[in-house]
Amino acid sequence: GSQVTDPEYSIGVGLFNDGKGLVGLGSISFDKQFIVNTIRLYDKNNRFRLNMPCKKAAATDESGKDVFYDICHPVTKEFRQELTDVFRLNYMALKEQKDQMQMPSQGKAR
């Protein structure tokens, strides 16, 4: 028979700020064989949330608003939380690097 194992994955995150809570855009690669792009990381008052790639439906809801559905998504809430944590940690490290690079030097001008 065949044996199923958990895939290895790696992520990439880039800083992005739309002024409405979107702070990062990322991707995830599984076993260097399959990649999912356009994963959005939102930060609302230090509460991070991932949005998966989605597509606009042809229909609208009862109030006339557009309806979107995920093209792909984590199957379990545990894996969604794991991904959110990994994206958040990578985003925070990247943001800290950027913030340090933008700090003015502490020396005196002569």
What do these coordinates show?
This protein has about 110 residues and is an alpha+beta fold. It has one helix at about 75-100; strands at about 10-15, 20-30, 35-45, 45-50, 55-60, 65-70. It has a 4-stranded antiparallel sheet, with helices on one face. The protein has a two-stranded antiparallel ribbon with strand order 5-6. Strand 5 (about 55-60) and strand 6 form a beta hairpin. The radius of gyration is 18 Å and the shape is flat. The N and C termini lie far apart (about 75 Å). The model has no long low-confidence stretch (mean pLDDT about 90).
Write a brief structural summary.
The protein has one helix spanning 77-101, and strands at residues 9-15, 22-30, 34-44, 47-51, 54-60, 66-70. By secondary structure, it is of the alpha+beta class.
List the SSEs and their pairings:
Blueprint: E1 9-15, E2 22-30, E3 34-44, E4 47-51, E5 54-60, E6 66-70, H1 77-101
Antiparallel strand pairs: 1-2, 2-3, 3-4, 5-6
Protein traits:
alpha+beta, 23% helix, 6 strands, single chain
The description of the largest β-sheet is: 4 strands, antiparallel
Please report the distance between the alpha carbons of the first and last residues: 75 Å
Query: Helical region count?
Result: 1
Portion of residues in beta strands equals 35-45%
- Which structural class fits the helix and strand makeup? alpha+beta
Shape: flat
Task: Provide the spatial order of strands within the biggest beta sheet.
Answer: 1-2-3-4
Radius of gyration: 18 Å
SSE order, one letter for each helix or strand? EEEEEEH
Q: pLDDT below 50 for ≥5 consecutive residues: which ranges? A: none
Mean model confidence by pLDDT: 90
What's the total number of strands?
6
| Helical proportion, percent range | 10-25%
